[in-house]
Amino acid sequence: MTCLRTRSTRLFLRRPLHVLLAGCLLALVPGCTPGPRDPLVVLGPWTGKEGEAFEAALAKLDDGTGRRYTYEGTRSLRETLVSQLEAGDPPDVAILNSIGELTEYARRDRLKPLAEASAERAYAPWSPTLLVDSRRRTYWVPLKVDLKSLVWSRKGASSADPTWCVGLASQATSGWPGTDWVEDILLHQAGPDVYTRWATGRLDWRAPAVERAWTTWARLLGKRSPASVEQSLTTSFEGASGPGGQPRGLLDSPGFDCTHEHQSAFIRYVYADKDVRVEPSARYLDGRSEERDTFEVSGDMAAVFSDDEAAQVLVERLSGPAGREIWRAQADPAVRPLFPDPAGLPPTTPTDPNEREIDSLLTSGARTLCFDASDVMPPELRDAFHRAVLEFFRDPSRRHLTSLLGQLETVRSEVNAESGDDRTFRPPEDICASPGG
Questions:
Q1: Pairing with 254, which of 100, 120, 136, 388 sits 20 to 30 Å away (CA)?
Q2: pLDDT of 10 strictly over 60
Q3: How far is CA 43 from the centre of its chain?
Q4: Residue 366 to residues 90, 223, 300: CA-CA distances in angstroms?
Q5: Which ranges of 108-244 would DSSP assign to H, the alpha helix?
Q6: Residue from 97, 82, 133, 65 nearest 305 by CA
Q7: What is the Cβ-side half-sphere exposure of residue 289, based on CA atoms within 13 angstroms?
Q8: What does the alpha-carbon distance between residue 267 and residue 265 come to, in Å, rounded to a whole number?
Q9: What pTM does this model have?
Q10: For residue range 184-219, what is the model confidence (pLDDT) as tens digits?
């Protein structure tokens, strides 16, 4: 006789009392023996080659207990996770890139504080602690990181008068390539302190520094024809599809007569084996010279949603040296993950020139790293920021910008009011740090 178990029954069976009752019932059924333990479910953002590499790493991450892992990769991560939480069947571990979302899950007691071994890898600025019930706690740890303050260009292209590629489409999150522009400009013009106050909801969106970042972006892009504007609004950040349906990058996309692209380190996968170079963005942003070694970063952080102790063990192994080495070995060069690399962990050994440059900036070339501002913001404000960027790109007039910033300030005020004066919970306030700090 076979005893079957599906994922829909996983939540029921994992609860201690229910597990005990289920075991008693099984014992009463002649010939029925308990099957293997359910696999731990990991929900994450990686699909395609990235997803395949991570899934292969999970398959090789044997913890000695015979426990198996199931990876669910999706581009609609927030929608999928919210649906699973509402159904009462969350994943054991979820990997998110939004500190704002993670903070909300912690506020609602959906996350489990990390075990000490994992909490020790809460590298700044990716994993700020939260004040919960008057105690400082760590709820997530970075598995993979990226550098955002970068410009990609064709080798030989003059940096004196760049023509910018812009692709703003990204399904439900369209607009984020534009928020990256505004964030990077504000960081380099106003510095980490002002950037931090803005990202964490403590600065008015109508402040001169914020307004200047938007107007600088419009000036750098220059006057664009209606056709060019529409093309940027409807073209993916990955560029047009090439042979085999693979993205070719904006620099190589038909109809984009451009020489430079402002984009995160992850875009290197579309430019693998192409004659493209990467450099820090500071020189292009009309910023302060003292901020030239300041960089905006992002990350994919693992958080535990279940009471299963094996989920804590999995996060510990994924964030440690052994997990890194296995994951890196499974990934193609173009999608090899980048890791935070403080003292005490073995350095990575990139082989691609652009990857070497990015890794060097992350680990030794940066004086200050600041987490992506929109990914720090509460989801409602982040989504409004995305929409405002799309509207501003279509109409960058001063009058329209004044209206958009007023709307964003209204959202900020409403979100802050909803949070109230909860002295038992404080969201992160320190989102900038020195590498390895």
A1: 388
A2: no
A3: 14
A4: 37, 33, 20
A5: 116-119, 176-190, 192-199, 208-221, 226-234
A6: 82
A7: 0
A8: 5
A9: 0.89
A10: 999 999 999 999 999 999 999 999 999 999 999 999
